[in-house]
UniProtKB/TrEMBL annotation:
SMART domains from the UniProt entry: CA (SM00112)
Transmembrane segments: 530-561
The name this protein goes by in its record: Cadherin-12
Xref: InterPro entries: Cadherin, Cadherin-like_dom, Cadherin-like_sf, Cadherin_CS, Cadherin_Y-type_LIR, Catenin-bd_sf
Keyword Membrane recorded: yes
Organism encoding this protein: Lanius ludovicianus (Loggerhead shrike)
The protein's role, per its UniProt record: Cadherins are calcium-dependent cell adhesion proteins. They preferentially interact with themselves in a homophilic manner in connecting cells; cadherins may thus contribute to the sorting of heterogeneous cell types.
Length: 718
């Protein structure tokens, strides 16, 4: 209630309210100043409200007093029960735990004011779950209340926990939650066989390594605490069987280690022990964590194939044995109760098997072809035996036949030897060790003997020393050998074997005489070395040969230079030739020689231009078309020569030296004057060649050629 001292109760004062919750939660009577709550209050929602109030004049609306602030506090009542915010709970505790073992702590929350009264004081209690568990009323810690709780008896527990406020007094509010508690396993139980004897029936045809039965020991524990290991206790028949653990079912799987035979033994008895792998030392006092059971196995009789008397047969036969000769036999029996006859046949796989046959009833093996040890020394094939009563039941055995050698080849020297002896060899010196080989298969203990042939034993050069171990040594019998007298010696050696009949052969060794130093090291075995002077070393011989080669090279170079010089002289003389000057090695045929130079080429400048060559290069002989030029005055030739002279003076490709070229003019002073028609102004018909006869026998041919007028040819130049 609000009241102003200025309020006289005549209705001149008006009260107003503002602030937190004014108009929504609280309201005020404007005339009396009474404050009322217009809805329910919840301390847990808002514990207090701050409001402002003022008294104003009704007429003037002016404040009569300053605004005042006040707080309305909500007083708590016990209207909230305790709540387990984390529930429901899940917990676990090992089985067989002692009393008071910690399990879990629970906690309840009360929204009431803990500072006002007992509304928020919570007390815990168990409504369901006794007498197995207990709870601390103040802390909410849950513990075991009974000893030796067994998981195998009961594994899951559901405990109902209550939390009550007001200190647990009557009228207090309460909340509940559940706690699911699981007992975890410990290895507190040994494995146990459900029965003491296990009976198994096993066919005698079971394969080695196959599973023939299963037994199981029961362990009520869980997980690794229930893992079991099985072992066969040493005793009757235990060595024929083995046992392993199936990791999924924890069963003992019995397997066969060796074959079973009903005819040999019909039953086996042994013991199997089952034990835990992971033991808990806290429970050793309970007793041994293992159990034992007896296993009896009865072998079932089955219809089995025949059984050979040996796992493998080995036989021997001499080569070239006549066809049809029996070399051995195989034997198989039916061991079943109703014994049946057995039939034999060869397991044909290739053509090699056709060398032998087998008697189907007796099992005897005979040759079917002639055998050759040098072609095939061993045969390997299979024999199959089947029961007459049940041909599908068969067994197989391997047969190895070794072909024995008949001594038909003589021994020979194993490898070709290159034997040498020094000129300075001493008597008794071993110069070669020889061995022998025989194409026949040598049996154990066979030996070869070595000796000289009868014709060589009388010669005093070499001898053979048999070492009695299939080797022999070639020894010298002379004091020194001379290559000049004899370079090669041929030594016949007779080799015999020890088989029957004895075979022998004569082998010839070639022994070469060589020059050696004082230590016996061979220096030369060549034939050419015999004729070299004694005392020259290898280095001296090489030096002599080198000098000879150098002299030969010098001679060859000298001859080549002489030839080159002669060739250069000839080239130089030929290079001096200019255009129409041609050298002849004989006297020529006079004017009838059509191979000489055609003067028409000099009178035709165009032809010269087309065939111009450098004068510093050896020119080839120029051949022009043969035609008869007309006779003209010599001034044309002089003009042409002058023209060519000017061209050479200005030609940049011309050689840098002066050269003299003579054209047309042969000079004066000859008794017969010029024979050329170039300088003649007369016709050929006016010329008289009788004077050629006065020149002697060397011009006889010319005189004969031009002596008759009908044979005269004025177009030729000689």
């Amino acid at each position: 209630k609000l009241h102003s001292d200025l309020d006289k109760g005549v209705g001149t004062v008006k009260y107003t309210l503002s602030g937190d919750g004014a108009g929504t939660v609280f309201t005020i009577d404007e005339t009396t100043g009474d404050i009322h709550a217009i809805r329910s209050l919840d301390r847990e929602e808002k514990p207090f409200y701050t409001l402002r109030a003022q008294a104003v004049d009704v007429d003037t609306k002016k404040p009569l007093e300053p605004e005042s602030e006040f707080i309305i506090k909500v007083q708590d009542i016990n209207d909230n029960e305790p709540k387990f915010l984390d529930g429901p709970y899940v917990a676990s505790v090992p089985e067989m735990s002692p009393v008071g073992a910690y399990v879990l702590q629970v906690k309840a929350t009360d929204a009431d004011d803990p500072t006002y009264g007992n509304s928020a004081r919570v007390v815990y209690s168990i409504l369901q779950g006794q007498p197995y568990f207990s709870i601390d009323p103040k802390t909410g810690v849950i513990r075991t209340a009974l000893p030796n709780m067994d998981r195998e008896v009961k594994e899951q527990y559901q405990v109902l926990i209550q939390a009550k406020d007001m200190g647990g007094q009557l009228g207090g509010l309460a909340g509940t939650t559940t706690v699911n508690i699981t007992l975890t396993d410990v290895n507190d139980n040994p494995p146990r066989f459900p029965k003491s004897i296990f009976h198994l029936k096993v066919p005698e045809t079971s394969h080695v390594g196959s599973a023939i039965g299963r037994i199981r020991a029961v362990d009520p524990d869980f997980g690794k605490n229930a893992e079991i290991e099985y072992n066969i206790v040493p005793g009757d028949g235990g060595n024929l069987f083995d046992i392993t653990t199936d990791e999924y079912t924890q069963e003992g799987v019995i397997k066969l280690k060796k074959p079973l035979d009903f005819e040999t033994k019909k039953a086996y008895t042994f013991k199997v022990e089952a034990s835990n792998l992971h033991l808990d030392h806290r429970f050793h006092s309970v007793g041994p964590f293992k159990d034992t059971a007896t296993v009896k196995i009865n072998v079932l009789d089955m219809d089995e194939p025949p059984v050979f008397s040996k796992p493998m047969y080995t036989m021997e036969v001499y080569e070239d044995t006549p066809v049809g000769t029996i070399i051995g036999a195989v034997t198989a029996q039916d061991l079943d109760a109703g014994s049946s006859s057995v039939r034999y046949f060869i397991d044909w796989k290739n053509d090699v098997d056709s060398y032998f046959t087998i008697d189907a009833t007796e099992g005897t093996i005979a040759t079917n072809e002639l055998l050759d040890r040098e072609s095939t020394a061993q045969y390997n094939f299979s024999i199959i035996a089947s029961k007459v009563s049940n041909p599908l039941l068969t067994s197989k055995v391997n047969v190895i036949i070794n072909v024995l050698d008949v001594n038909e080849f003589p021994p020979e020297i194993s490898v070709p030897y290159e034997t040498s002896v020094c000129e300075n060899a001493k008597p008794g010196q071993v110069i070669q060790i020889i061995t022998a080989a025989d194409k026949d298969l040598s049996p154990a203990g066979q030996r070869f003997s070595f000796k000289l042939s009868s014709e060589a034993s009388n010669k005093p050069n070499f001898t053979v020393h048999d070492y009695r171990n299939n080797t022999a040594g070639i020894e010298t019998r002379r004091n020194g050998y001379s290559r000049r007298q004899q370079e090669l010696y041929f030594l016949p050696v007779v080799i015999e074997d020890s088989s029957y009949p004895v075979q022998s052969s004569t082998n010839t060794l070639t022994i070469r005489v060589c020059r050696c130093d004082s230590d016996g090291t061979i220096q030369s075995c060549n034939v050419e070395a015999i004729f070299l002077p004694v005392g020259l070393s290898t280095g001296a011989l090489i030096a002599i040969l080198l000098c000879i080669v150098i002299l030969l090279v010098i001679v060859v170079l000298y001859v080549a230079l002489r030839r080159q010089k002669k060739k250069d002289t000839l080239m130089t003389s030929k290079e001096d030739i200019r255009d129409n000057v041609i050298h002849y090695d004989d006297e020529g045929g006079g004017e009838e020689d059509t191979q000489a130079f055609d003067i028409g080429a000099l009178r035709n400048p165009k032809v010269i231009e087309d065939n111009k060559v450098r004068r510093d290069i050896k020119p080839d002989t120029l051949r022009f078309p043969r035609h008869r030029p007309p006779a003209e005055d010599n001034t044309d030739i002089r003009d042409f020569i002058n023209h060519r002279l000017q061209e050479n003076d200005v030609d940049p490709s011309a050689p840098p030296y002066d050269s003299l070229a003579t054209y047309a003019y042969e000079g004066n002073g000859s008794v017969a004057e010029s024979l050329s028609s170039i300088d003649s102004l007369t016709t050929e018909a006016d010329q008289d060649y009788d004077y050629l006869s006065d020149w002697g026998p060397r011009f006889k041919i010319l005189a004969d050629m031009f002596g008759e007028e009908e044979s005269y040819n004025p177009d030729k130049v000689t």
